[in-house]
Design goal:
With 177 residues, the protein is of the alpha+beta class. It contains 2 helices and 13 strands. The chain folds into 2 domains: 72 residues, Outer Surface Protein A, domain 3 (Alpha-Beta Complex), CATH 3.90.930; 82 residues, Alpha-Beta Complex (Outer Surface Protein A, domain 3). Part of the 50S ribosomal subunit.
């Protein structure tokens, strides 16, 4: 039984949710998001709460119950507040800069790494060693952060590379004489 699916999704002020058939659409100050609901669950709107219930007691229905509730909750939070992932860049000469619609990364290669910024997210560099990725879709923001981190992940000896702000690097000791 899903423990996540038991609870309703609370819709804050300024966000409108419409449930029509097998589609849930959420509209807020940051944009509009839509989700196709699978046949195993049903979604109802009750005042400022969205309830998700399984249609049957099958294993797939129970799995999709919690998943659908979490996806709707992420859509509501995304259009009202948005999601942000912060990256840190460590290393001598390692830096980032936004130039137009391109994130330019200098990560110790013989060339600069240019990452084109998609239209649905915003990327900012307050300092040359920090990158902030913001958007309304949680999956998209996390995917872009993972792609940028994958160019030069943190290494365990000196900690050089791109890492998440909340990530801790397990350091190794290195060679001994």
């Amino acid at each position: 039984m899903s423990r996540v699916g038991k609870y309703p999704v609370v819709v804050p002020n300024g966000v409108t949710v419409t449930v029509s058939g097998a589609e849930v659409s959420v509209k807020g100050k940051l944009g509009v998001s839509a989700l196709q609901i699978v046949d195993d669950v049903e979604t109802t709107l009750d005042g400022n709460h969205v309830w998700v219930k399984p249609k049957a007691e099958t294993k797939r229905a129970r799995m999709m119950w919690g998943t659908t509730r979490a996806l709707i909750n992420n859509m509501v939070k995304g259009v009202s507040e948005g999601f942000t992932v912060n990256l840190e860049i460590n290393g001598v000469g390692y830096r980032a800069a936004v130039q137009g619609k391109v994130l330019q990364l200098q990560l110790g290669f013989s060339h600069d790494v240019n990452y084109p910024i998609p239209d649905d997210v915003t990327i900012k560099c307050e300092k040359p060693t920090s990158v902030s990725i913001t958007g309304k879709d949680r999956q998209r923001v996390g995917q872009i952060a993972a792609e940028i981190r994958a160019y030069r992940g943190p290494e365990p000896y000196k900690g050089k590379g791109v890492k998440y702000e909340t990530e801790t690097i397990l350091r190794k000791e290195g060679k001994k004489k």
